[in-house]
Amino acid sequence: MREMLNMIYDKNHADICTLNIYLPEERDTLYPVFIYFHGGGMEGGSKDEIADLVNITSNGIALVSVEYRKYPQAKFPEFVEDTAKAVEFVKTYGETHNLFSDLYVGGSSAGGYLAMMVYFDRHYLNQYGILPEEIKGWVFDAGQPTVHFNVLRERGLDTRLARIDEAAPIYFIDHGMDQDKQSKLLFITADNDMPNRLEQTKLILKTMEQFNYDMSKVEFILMEGCGHCGYSIVNMVTDFILNQ
After folding, report:
1. What is the pLDDT of residues 133-152, one digit of tens each?
2. Residues 35, 86: contact at Cβ < 8 Å?
């Protein structure tokens, strides 16, 4: 495995907006790459805390782990903007250096929320000339499809509330999806996840179905007997990428 650490993807916030790239052993073909956003409620966590996820490189998959602005220094939508900027950086870097075959984007918990926001609210990637469906696959691990609880806290609201507005991924399922162009999507949730997380995940899946998403391109994995992110996603992500 080859490492390129602490690469700056946004010079305007060079002290925070960095990422690590982990490449499989050198070979002649291009790699699929998984761009990963860590959890921590947009107030904790680190791009360096990826546990065993780096092991996907042994399966010929590159990994990019991204740092982004967080509370209390940041506020909505700055961390979402960082998410889109990081995707654009990796896409451009891969094209410039002839590295990556296909792009996959995802995250766990808060990172799952961020990935959902830039997938469903198209304007974040559109500002860089990228369509969400240009990303071959998306992984939403235990992400909140309604307004994230810490965005609610930022607004001075009870964090248990379910709110659907411009800070909620599900808010943007308001048009029929072009099924031919739709990316593959993977949702992962535990049966003992955070309160209402499983039910909200089921809600976004049902809403997608109502708005003509191709549900044969949508996979849902329920982690039985597990708590919030209390499991490894290495095998799930590997299977999702290699079995496209």
Report:
1. 999 999 999 999 999 999 99
2. yes
